């Protein structure tokens, strides 16, 4: 990937099956050209802040972050907390895409500034449909300020 091109989607998901379905849907629907898949919250923060193995990266924020809640190393709520407290990242839309249906997770996510909270459907077709709708809205319809 050309590092000067803006990343369309940062997918932070530790479940390979969910990640593959998400990647496949976004690509088949032609909703995202550049997608980075990371498997834990620590890697996501390193990527966003251009540190560690991502120190080479130009600090251009993604257009959308699809963030799982329950992640290894650093959980999704902490990633969200750090993003929304940073002046360079707070305007990046974050969609919590998670299997959690807990009300306290929903409330905490919105308290921290999540833009949308979506519970992953179990069925493949329903999951794919939800991802397509999310991608369509956040990548094609929603307007963002220029980075």
What does this entry look like structurally?
The chain has a five-stranded parallel sheet, with helices on both faces. The chain is globular and about 35 Å long. β3, α3 and β4 (94-98) form a beta-alpha-beta unit. Helix content is 39%, strand content 14%. Residues 1-5 have low confidence and may be disordered. It has one domain (9-141): Rossmann fold (3-Layer(aba) Sandwich), CATH 3.40.50.2300. It is built from five helices and five strands. The chain has helices at 16-28, 41-48, 76-84, 103-112, 124-141; strands at residues 9-12, 35-38, 64-67, 94-98, 116-119. With 147 residues, it is α/β, with parallel strands linked by helices.
Q: What pattern of helices and strands is seen along the backbone?
A: EHEHEHEHEH
The largest beta-sheet arranges its strands as 2-1-3-4-5
Instruction: Estimate what percentage of residues fall within beta strands.
Output: 5-15%
Q: What's the number of extended β-strand segments? A: 5
State the major sheet.
Answer: 5 strands, parallel
Backbone CA Rg: 14 Å
**Roughly what percent helix?**
25-40%
Summarize model confidence as the mean pLDDT: 88
CATH architecture descriptor name: 3-Layer(aba) Sandwich
Layout of secondary structure:
Layout: E1 9-12, H1 16-28, E2 35-38, H2 41-48, E3 64-67, H3 76-84, E4 94-98, H4 103-112, E5 116-119, H5 124-141
Parallel strand pairs: 1-2, 1-3, 3-4, 4-5
Helix pairs in contact: 1-5, 2-3
Task: Give a short synopsis of this structure.
This protein is α/β, with parallel strands linked by helices. The chain is built from five helices and five strands, in the order βαβαβαβαβα.
């Amino acid at each position: 990937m050309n590092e000067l091109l803006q990343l369309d989607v940062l997918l932070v998901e530790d479940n390979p099956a969910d990640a593959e379905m998400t990647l496949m849907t976004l690509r088949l629907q032609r909703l995202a050209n550049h997608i980075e898949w990371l498997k834990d919250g620590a890697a996501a923060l390193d990527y966003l802040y251009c540190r560690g193995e991502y120190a080479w990266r130009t600090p251009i924020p993604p257009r959308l972050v699809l963030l799982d809640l329950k992640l290894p190393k650093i959980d999704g709520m902490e990633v969200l907390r750090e993003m929304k407290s940073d002046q360079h990242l707070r305007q990046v839309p974050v969609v919590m895409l998670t299997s959690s249906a807990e009300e306290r997770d929903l409330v905490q996510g919105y308290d921290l500034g999540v833009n949308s909270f979506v519970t992953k459907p179990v069925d493949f077709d329903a999951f794919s449909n939800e991802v397509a709708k999310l991608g369509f809205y956040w990548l094609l319809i929603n307007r963002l300020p220029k980075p």
